[in-house]
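fwd from M.: "can u put these together and see what the complex looks like"

so here's what she sent:
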Amino acid sequence: MEQKNNTLLIYTLLYFAFLYIPVLFLPIFSFNDANYMSFPLSGFTTEHYEEMWAKTNLHKALWASIKVGVVASVVSTTIALFAAKAFARYKFRGQNISYGAIMIPFLIPEIILAVAILVIWLSLGFKLGLVPVTLGHILFCTPFAMLILIARIEGFDFSLEEASRDLGENAWGTFYRVSLPLYLPGIIASLLLSFIISFDEFVLAFFLTGSDATLPMYMWAQMRFIQKLPHVLALGAVIIVFTTFIVLLAFWLRNLGQGKEKAEFGIKIHE
Amino acid sequence: MNDSFIQINGISKHFGNVKAVDDVSFQIKEGEFFSLLGPSGCGKTTLLRLLAGFEYPTSGNLLLDGSDITALPPDKRPTNMVFQNYAIFPHINVEKNVQFGLRKLGLTNDEIIKRVKDVLSLVKLEGYEERYSSQLSGGQRQRVALARALVRQPKVLLLDEPLGALDKKLRDEMQLELRTLQKEIGITFVFVTHDQQEAISMSDRVAVMSEGKIQQMSSPNELYKNPQNIFVSDFIGETNFLKAKTNSKDGEYINVNIEDLGSFKIKNNLNISENASDVICSVRPETMMIDREKSDWDICLEGKIKQTSYLGEMTKFYVETKEIKKIITVSSQYFDNQSFQDGKCFISINLNDISLLNKK
């Protein structure tokens, strides 16, 4: 018994080491007083961070990423909310097929999606830039948003919505006073995760941005010059911390109130 | 009082090929406690949801207090519902739940406060204003659901098996309380249940439903004493069925030939005039007598007790006789069960207690 537990513990530690050691190198080297990534470390400095913050191009890229991320997460969460509600509330013909169809962008290699959007966009005579990137990100984020929202709405007691109608609220009032507050943790979780997916996305941005770089594009461009590597490392470290925080927040929100309400819905009896 | 307060005129509701409600017409009186009773899937809940506006009929129309409500959405109907699972909003407290339906009624703040206070005292929930649904017991949730519906002062209160989730003791208490409450406020109640005892004990009138149709609609007493067909007789209480063929009619009586028993003259409660039509005779267990000795009742059969079950207030016997394979009868708690140790007994029946049933 003892033996087995140790084996599992070692396996678990190795697993986390494999996941996180490469990622931990970034923050370590971002504080290292050298222009290249190699041991031994030559001294502690925050110079790379100062250097990073001084780049005005970076500010532009950050702003572009935020704009794209906000629009993409709001639009994809809205689309996904409608779809998730329909899937959870109703049984309809072709339900499985349409569910699959929504999930497919999830599985198509991103580069194919990117090339397809690029070809269509250019053949329609439009210019490259943040607009096609945003459209691509909406396409890419919607399945993620769907998964989160369906998990939240499934098991939702729809007699609550009927009760609201019965008590004199119309469809909008019901959505605003009953459905929205109860879906809200899921909606926020979906917004946050969609934003992060868009914020980190590279392939679509690589094909579809013209001159307005997003943050990952900016980082990629900087990597070509060895002397710029350290401040990219610093930027990477900041992004890792930020992303981790957002993802944890999203997961916490997703589970918020679930336990309590599950017990609530436990008394639901079907005739 | 308005005898046709709710008019249900030729209502049908089909879900695909399933006729959940099949051309039903009847009327409910103002201030009445009316129950829709039937087994699962008989259409009683669908009929209630049609009244609430959650479903729209495939055909037919609904009138409430003289106006046609067939096409009105639920929020425009003067009805309110107590849901089977209560559907208390989990994100707001009891007070806000009760206030929920008052927003659109155009009341002043003072009126709202007064109404909420009055209704909470009516359902005995004072002091629970700040609680959330998850902090309430089943019985308390039920009271919140009731308060939330009654606070709007609806013309009709619809109740969808509201006592189903409660344990037996609480259920019995709530039955009495609901009945008292209904008499006190005088609102018309339409109550859906699958529990025949519940329907009989609370209602002014009961409609027994099966397969989307009304099988019988009458007072609880009438339903028990004078069931019109096999379904109703079997669903309300317990009974013994005997196959029979009619012979000649004789005033209020009719001669019937009961299978394996012989010819008897019994009350013609169905007013049958044809000869040789197949009918079923029903005899309630509690109208029979079980004894060791032969009696001078109209019919007395010798039999053997196959099984007994002790129910506290009475004992139930399953008896086999030469003529009939299985008879169910009961005896009161004062009866000495030990006297049947060899299983031999006599079953006595009065012809007055045999009633005729339609086969369908």
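replying to her w this: Residues 133 and 208 of chain A are 6 Å apart (CA to CA).
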